[in-house]
Amino acid sequence: MDSIQKQVGSRNWGSDSITSPFPKIYGFAQCHDDLSSLDCKICFCQGRDKLPHCLPATSARIYLNGCFIRFDKYNFFHEAIDPMNDAVVCGEPKHPLTDSILKFKKRIASVIHNVTAMALGNGTFATAEAKGGDFSVYALAQCWNTLDRDECRKCLVNAGSKLSHCAPGSEGSALFTGCYMKYSTEIFFKKSVESEYLYDNTGIIVAVTLSTVAFVVLASFGAFIGYERLSKRIGGEIATKKQCP
User: Fold this and answer.
1) 158: closest CA among 131, 180, 133, 126?
2) C-alpha closest to that of 223 among 191, 205, 200, 195
3) pLDDT, block means (10 residues), the chain with 245 residues
């Protein structure tokens, strides 16, 4: 599965599968399109470091603030939604509203609608802003690149519908099988500057033993510190969800 690391390093996402010998294993990783190549590598390394916590399960999903990693025992590459595992994480209201709650909810619904339409128009990704009232509302939508257009639409529409129920919370994240969506009253999707972080690609080693479906991950100290800095810059690890059936 080290081919996923190489793909992420070259294009910010990757997928792979090993179907023989038994047991089968499928893996996928993708960064959000607003991350630079370096920030993507840092996020991927930190996410992969969490995979051993899911053992001895044969599947896992890890959502970080900037990337997603999944492995499973079946081909899930065109899976858009999963009612058993899709989730929404809602924040609390952070600021007093002089606007009515109804107006604030409408602004959240508007930015979710717009970012969904823009992502489908762009292909898989978009950011949007809804201005007005006390606070602007920002949103990001990202489909995984293995989905086709109809599958992406299905995921984003379902994610947006569930996410809108987070209002009047100041932020919310939809952690779905085929996509990720977030809104916040604070901007969170600015690109970071690559020169501010250090990353040593040679410090990352992944060993996969198919007989035990074991993942051994050694992340370099430099990569870990880099991700800690990245987390502070883009809002922290607000969307970490490990699913280990």
Assistant:
1) 180
2) 200
3) 84 87 90 94 90 85 94 95 96 75 89 97 94 87 97 98 94 97 91 28 23 26 36 40 44
Is the CB of residue 120 less than 8 Å from the CB of residue 153? Answer: yes
2-79+197-234 and 87-184, same CATH topology: yes
Instruction: Spell out the residues 6+ positions from residue 161 whose beta carbon is closer than 8 angstroms to its own.
Output: none
Fold classified for 87-184: Killer Toxin P4; Chain A (3.30.430)
What tokens were used for 137? 């509302």
Residue 130: predicted pLDDT:
92
User: Are the C-beta atoms of residues 64 and 239 closer than 8 Å to each other?
Assistant: yes
On the CB side of 47, CA atoms within 13 Å amount to 30
pLDDT of residue 244: 43
Residue owning tokens 């051994």: 216
Tell me the pTM.
Answer: 0.76
Q: How many of the other CB atoms lie within 10 Å of CB of 72?
A: 20
CATH architecture of 2-79+197-234: 2-Layer Sandwich (3.30)
Give the per-residue pLDDT at 100.
77
